[in-house]
Design brief:
Length: 573
C-alpha cells in the first residue's frame, strides 16, 4: 500500500507561483510573527545568500486538498507563507514607486494575486483567517500606502488581531529599502539586488511540502513529529489531538470543535493560552506540571464524544478565565461592588495561583459563596504573599488541591475553603510580626495597602468614609515622609542614624497618601511637611503630623500601629 503523504522539497516562491491557492482555516491562530522573528528570517536569508548557499531550509509545511486539485488548506505553515508574501509584496511596492511597473506586476501575478480572464477581481494566492484576511487583502494584495498602514496601526488597540500583521508589513517595507539601497547603490544596482533576492526566495528558500489526504492524518503526523522535535506549543498539540480524535466521518462534529476552538482563541487574545490550559486542567483535576498537560489530555479525551464535550467546557472556561482580571466583565454581573473591587485587588496583587480556584468556583458556587471566596482569596494573598513573602510553590499546591475539591463538590462553601487552606494561612500574630518590618517599592501596591488600612482606621474610629477621600484613582499619590532623595534639611537626622535611609525609606511606616495639590512635597523637611499632613482628611496621613520628629523610632511606632489595623483589615473570619 502506498503512503498517503506527499512530501517534495520546493522553494517557497515556487510554491506560491505554481502550487495553487492556499486557505488558512478559520480556527487557526491570527498572524503572530513579531519584528524579531521577521528580522531573523531576513538575516538568515541574507547570510545564506552571501555565503553562497544553494539552499536554505525553513522547515515543514503541511497542506490538505480543499475541493479542487489546486486549492489547499494550510494546516501548518501559515506564518511563514504569509511573511514570504508580505516580503514579496514589499519588493513589488518598492518597484512600483520607481515606475518599474512591468516587474512589479510580474511579482504581483506570480506570487501575490492574479486575475482570471474576463474578471476584474484579484484572486489572492493566500487567504488568511477571518480576523486577518480583510486587512491582508487591503494592505498587502491591494498595496495600501505606507502612511495609510501607519495611520491604521495607530488606531488599533494593543491586542487587536491585526496589529502584528500591520507591523510586519512596515518592517518588511523598511528591510526591503535597506536591501535595495545597501552601500548607496545606484538605482540599477538596487533593483538588481531585489531581483536576486526574489529569485533566491523563489528557488532556494525551501520548505518540505507535506500534503495529507485529511485532517485526521495530519494531526496524527503532528503528534509523531512533535516527539521528534517539532516546536509546537502545548495548546497546538492539544488542538491537533482534539481535531484528530473527532470521528473522521463526522465533518459536522469536526466543524463544531473547530468553531469552538476559534471562539476560545478569540477569548484568550489578551492572555497566554498555554497558561490558561494549565489553569483549566488544574481547576478540574488538580495540580499538574506543564510538560504533563498533553499526555494527561490524551488520557482523558479518549473518544470523539469526549473531544466534543471537553471542547465545550474549555470554551466556557476560556471566557471565564479572560474575565478573572476584568471586574466589569459580564461574568461578574451578579456580584455587588465590593466583591468586584476584590477582583481588581487580586489583579493588582498578581495572584495567578488562585485562578484555578476561581474557575472551579464559577462553575460550582452560588453568588453569595463566590463573593465570600473572593474575600478569602484576597486575604490569603495579602497575608501569605504580599506581606508574608512566602513560597509561591506551596501556595500553588494548596490552591490546586482546593480548586479540584471545589469542582468535584467536596468543598461547597467559602468557610470550607478556609478550612482547607488552614495549613498555609498565616495566623494573626505571624501576620503582625511580618507586617511591622514590611517594605514595599511598588506604588500601586503601597496605595492599595494604605487605602485598605485607612478604611479600617475609619471603621475602628466609628467614622464613615466619604468616597472621594479614599477612591482608587490617580488623585491619591504615595508620599515618602523621609524622602527617597533627602534635602540638606535631613542631614542632622541622617548623621545620627547613617543607615536610616537605606533601612526605612520604603518601610510602610514611612509612607502615606496625599491628595490633589498637596502631593508635591518631595525632599522638603519634616517640619515643612507637617502642616500639610495636619490638613489631610485621611486619618493615617493626619496622624503623621502628631509626631514631633521623624526618625527610626517614629517610623517603627507608626508601622506597629498600622500592623494592628492590618490584622483586622485582612481577616476572613
Amino acid at each position: 500500500m502506498g503512503s498517503p503523504f506527499e512530501a517534495p522539497t520546493v522553494g517557497i516562491g515556487r510554491l506560491l507561483k505554481e502550487g495553487g491557492r492556499f486557505v488558512v482555516p478559520h480556527h487557526q491562530r491570527d498572524y503572530s510573527w513579531r519584528e524579531d522573528e521577521i528580522e531573523q528570517l531576513f538575516g538568515d536569508i541574507g547570510e545564506a545568500r552571501s555565503s553562497g548557499q544553494d539552499e536554505y531550509f525553513i522547515g515543514l509545511m503541511v497542506f490538505m486538498h480543499k475541493g479542487t486539485e489546486d486549492h489547499f488548506t494550510i494546516l501548518d505553515g501559515q506564518q511563514r507563507m504569509a511573511t514570504a508574501i508580505i516580503i514579496l509584496a514589499s519588493i513589488r511596492t518598492w518597484l512600483r514607486a520607481r515606475d518599474l511597473e512591468r516587474d512589479a506586476d510580474k511579482i504581483q501575478e506570480d506570487f501575490i494575486a492574479g486575475r482570471e480572464l474576463g474578471e476584474q477581481d484579484l484572486k489572492p494566492r493566500l487567504i488568511l483567517n477571518e480576523n486577518n484576511n480583510q486587512v491582508f487583502r487591503q494592505s498587502v494584495v491591494r498595496e495600501a500606502p505606507t502612511e495609510e498602514i501607519e495611520a491604521a496601526l495607530k488606531g488599533l488597540k494593543k491586542h487587536d488581531p491585526n496589529r502584528r500583521l500591520l507591523e510586519a508589513i512596515l518592517v518588511c517595507r523598511k528591510r526591503v529599502e535597506e536591501i535595495a539601497n545597501r552601500e548607496e547603490n545606484s538605482l540599477d544596482e538596487a533593483t538588481q539586488n531585489l531581483y536576486d533576492f526574489v529569485k533566491y526566495l523563489r528557488d532556494s528558500v525551501k520548505i518540505v511540502r507535506l500534503t495529507v489526504p485529511n485532517e485526521a492524518n495530519a494531526y496524527t503526523m503532528f503528534e509523531t513529529l512533535n516527539w521528534r522535535g517539532l516546536d509546537l506549543s502545548i495548546l497546538d498539540l492539544v488542538k491537533n489531538y482534539f481535531f484528530g480524535k473527532v470521528d473522521s466521518g463526522s465533518e459536522a462534529q469536526l466543524r463544531e470543535v473547530q468553531t469552538r476552538w476559534a471562539q476560545m482563541m478569540a477569548s484568550l487574545v489578551n492572555v497566554q493560552a498555554d497558561v490558561f490550559l494549565k489553569a483549566y486542567w488544574t481547576s478540574r483535576y488538580g495540580r499538574i506540571q506543564k510538560p504533563q498537560l498533553f499526555p494527561r489530555f490524551k488520557d482523558k479525551v479518549t473518544s470523539s464524544g469526549k473531544a466534543v464535550a471537553t471542547s465545550a467546557d474549555m470554551l466556557s472556561a476560556s471566557e471565564q478565565y479572560a474575565a478573572l482580571e476584568i471586574a466589569d466583565d459580564p461574568t461578574w454581573a451578579g456580584l455587588s461592588e465590593q466583591p468586584r473591587g476584590r477582583i481588581r485587588s487580586l489583579k493588582l496583587l498578581g495572584a495567578r495561583q488562585v485562578h484555578p480556584v476561581l474557575l472551579s468556583a464559577l462553575e460550582r458556587f452560588p453568588t453569595r459563596e463566590l463573593e465570600r471566596l473572593l474575600h478569602l482569596l484576597e486575604v490569603l494573598i495579602v497575608r501569605y504573599q504580599l506581606i508574608g513573602g512566602l513560597r509561591t510553590g506551596r501556595l500553588e499546591i494548596s490552591c490546586a488541591a482546593l480548586a479540584a475539591e471545589v469542582y468535584q463538590q467536596k468543598i461547597k462553601t467559602a468557610t470550607e475553603a478556609f478550612q482547607a487552606l488552614r495549613d498555609i494561612f498565616p495566623k494573626d500574630d505571624e501576620f503582625r510580626a511580618v507586617f511591622v518590618d514590611k517594605q514595599e517599592r511598588n506604588n500601586q501596591k503601597v496605595r492599595y495597602i494604605l487605602q485598605t488600612l485607612e478604611t479600617q482606621a475609619r471603621r475602628s474610629a466609628g467614622q464613615e468614609m466619604r468616597a472621594s477621600e479614599n477612591e482608587p484613582s490617580a488623585s491619591l499619590t504615595v508620599e515618602h515622609i523621609l524622602p527617597r532623595s533627602p534635602s540638606k534639611s535631613w542631614e542632622p537626622i541622617l548623621q545620627q542614624d547613617p543607615n536610616l535611609a537605606e533601612d526605612c525609606t520604603y518601610r510602610l511606616g514611612n509612607l502615606c497618601l496625599l491628595t490633589g495639590v498637596n502631593r508635591k512635597l518631595g525632599a522638603k523637611s519634616f517640619a515643612e511637611k507637617q502642616p500639610v499632613f495636619a490638613q489631610s482628611t485621611l486619618l493615617l496621613t493626619n496622624e503623621v503630623a502628631t509626631f514631633k520628629d521623624w526618625n527610626r523610632d517614629s517610623i517603627e511606632k507608626r508601622q506597629e500601629r498600622m500592623a494592628k489595623l492590618a490584622v483586622a483589615a485582612w481577616r476572613f473570619q
